Amino acid sequence: MTCSLFKRLVDAYVDSELDGAEAMEVWRHADHCPDCARELARARYVKVKMEEGAGHGLPDGLEDRILLATTGSVSPAAKPEVLRRPVWAWGLTAAAAAAFAIMAIALLRPTPAPPPTTASAAEDSIYSEGFDPLAIPIPAPASARTASFGP
Fold first, then answer.
1. Where are the domains positioned within the chain?
2. Smallest Cα–Cα separation from 16: which of 50, 24, 31?
3. Pick from 29, 38, 24: which is nearest to 5 by CA?
4. Are 26 and 9 in contact (CB under 8 A)?
5. Which of 82, 85, 98, 117 is the right S-S partner for 89, CB 3.0 to 4.6 Å?
């Protein structure tokens, strides 16, 4: 392992993020290289100090200094308001957009043409002129006209 590779991996080693083989290589290199051993000691020291300071609050006056530097005033009114939508508002917005899209598709879809009829053009013209097929006299059968009654 080279010193440059060690320097890239030392923080991951201290945070136990390396697999066993890589961790063993980093440890062996630090065991034989005094400069990298000092770098490993520094990384461990930084980790310990970061963990110790994790429970502490902000120093007094830090918030006021940040406000003064960013807004020019330390009054609470100078703090920018963060407007947030409630979670349900996002769901309502999505539902309204979906409903609008469905209605737009339904209204803009072309109307289907009526199915073709089997009637011919001649039948259409007859019925459109008021033709009544039941008004046509039906002649009696020939056998009924010549039938004789009696012997």
1. 3-53, 61-106
2. 24
3. 29
4. yes
5. 85
